[in-house]
User: Fold FAD-dependent oxidoreductase from Myceligenerans indicum.
Amino acid sequence: MQTDVLVVGAGLGGIAAALAAAGRGARVVLTEEHPWIGGQLTSQAVPPDEHPWVERFGVTARYRSLRDGIRDVYRRRHPLTSTAHAWPALNPGAGWVSKLCHEPRVAVGVLEEMLAPYRSAGRIRLLELVRPTSATTDGDRVTSVTLTSVADGPGVTVSAAYTIDATETGELLPLTGTEYVTGFESSAETGEPSAPEKAQPDNVQALSVCFALDHVDGDHTIDRPARYDFWRSYAPPAWQGERLLSWTAPNPRTLDLEERTFTPNPGDDPLAVDADQSKNAGDGNLWLFRRIAARDLLEPGFRDSDLCLVNWPSIDYFLDHVLDVPREVSDARIADARQLSLSMLYWMQTEAPRPDGGTGYPGLRLRPDVMGSADGLAQAAYHRESRRIRAVTTVTENDVSHAVRGESGATRYDDSVGVGMYRIDLHPSTGGDTYIDVPSTPFEIPLGALLPRRTTNLLAGNKNLGTTHITNGCYRLHPVEWNAGEAAGHLAAHCLATGHVPHEVQEKPELLADYQRELTATGVELRWPEGETYPY
Assistant:
């Protein structure tokens, strides 16, 4: 198969890349391994982690269209109360982690709708349930990628003028021989105050396998997980003697142990939820933290229960990483992470202390229908950290940390292709490190971070862009991934149309200015507004 642009991975970055390239007239082949497109928002079931000003600025127009489309589905198809229907910034789950907590299947439908006109016109061809297994190169160019079915279907080899690696873990980088880094870089390399003296390539952030619950009458206790005895007794060093399966965990910002509460269907006022993590981390009551459906926003009696999305410290899997190991090893480790998630559920159903002095919540019910999976867990593991390209520009802690940059703000880039904002938020890692969760400043995405130093026609379109282990902590979130993918897709189509190559566009001011004008015309913001006051 031949195409103009091959986008491997239909997560948020991949979909944004495909839409941008097709919108500029390119022919695109888009591929996805899992049953749902949408990556961390859908198959990984993670509600969007966004900055406090997302309702006003700081995301691309296409990303805003995705958010508007999700709200539109709830307004048109769900029996909202009149007050909820009139809520301009409708938060369907009224979760504290995000201003737009929602069920993952709704986002799948909206993303499919966004792709629909381009698929109908033949500009985007979506290859489903395939993963990349090999690639060919000619010097510094990628010439083809071979994709193998994960469902015993036929494979396919795709040749393209430009290839965008939008996979969740940078899978094309080793296949194409593109230079990359994993884990912690050394302070000698990056100059980062939080980096270790020596590089730690196997020290990678925890991954998680999320799941959704409701709480209804009856006993819905699952079978005792095979690894329950291990996980029930496991006490990570960062937990200071406490067990991982508990309501107690370190505060990511202070590292002090804190006991959370857990009250299913507490009868709170969902309209009073102020999902702004710069004011309140929101994890006091874990039921409300990532709630994705609030029954009290709907007409009385329509739902028996809220829906609670479990993505908590207790399901962070940091025994080992899954990068650059044989497939059977990575599959086994993800299977163990799934055992951890099931063990947490079983502990909640059978042993968790309740406020009334009892133990266990047998009414907690796993929802396979909500996850789109047979076992009720998310279809895919949530990978917080990917392989990262050795990039033309690498964003370091010194570019975005508020402790370093202060009121001068993050480094400004002449080649900015977008903006983002989130705390530098690193979960415990496979090297035994605890949280790093410190303030950053509103930052920009440099074009050089999407470009490998050597490979000329491969672009980063996900968490594999030019960040470090540390700055990955603020560049890995939903709107930044989307923005990076959109910029990469637009760049590929721009180069096809103009005959220039990506590195040339990045290096030559007049070519860069033409490309940036096209980006801004499609609703990509390159700078943060002047005169705003930004909480950290």
About this structure: The two ends are 48 Å apart (CA to CA).
